[in-house]
Amino acid sequence: MERYRAGKPTSPQERLGTGLETESGWQWLARAQARHQAVTSSSMMVGVTAYFGFTCTDSSDDIRERGITTAIWPTYAKQLLELQEAGATEEDLHPIVAEAITESCFTQ
User: Fold this and answer.
1) In the structure, what pLDDT confidence band is assigned to residue 24 with cuts at 50, 70 and 90?
2) In contact, 39 and 70? CB cutoff 8 Å
3) Which of 11, 26, 69, 96 would disulfide-bridge 47, Cβ 3.0–4.6 Å?
C-alpha cells in the first residue's frame, strides 16, 4: 500500500514477477495431480453441515446442526469432479454428496 501512496511503479519487480508466473504455471499441475489421486487410489475429504434429530413431542433430541467431515470413495469423488468440471452448480452436486456421505458414515 505504501508503494501505491508514494506513486512508485505498481508493477512487480522482475524477480517477483517471474516467481508469480512460475507459481501460476505449476498450480494447475498440482490440482490435476490431487484430482487424479482422489479418483484413483485415495479418497476425497468432504465437509458438510447437516441437521440431525427427531421431531417428536417431548423429545430431548431436538433437531441440531452438525458438521460432518468424512472421506468419500473414489467413485463418488470422480462423479463430483466430473460434474464440477462440466459446470454443475452446488445444488446439482448435493445428491451425490448425500449418497457418498450416507455410504461412508451410516452404512457398514
Assistant:
1) low
2) no
3) 69
Residue with the bigger pLDDT between 71 and 54: it is: 71
| CA-to-CA separations, 67 to 3, 28, 60, 85, 97, in angstroms, rounded | 43, 30, 20, 26, 14
Determine phi and psi for 107, rounding to 5 degrees: -125, 155
Give pTM, 2 decimals.
Answer: 0.61
Q: What are phi and psi of 48, to 5 degrees?
A: -140, 165
Which neighbouring-strand residues pair with 72?
44
Cell of 64: 441440531
Which amino acid is residue 45, in one-letter code? M
Q: In whole angstroms, how large is the CA radius of gyration of the chain?
A: 22
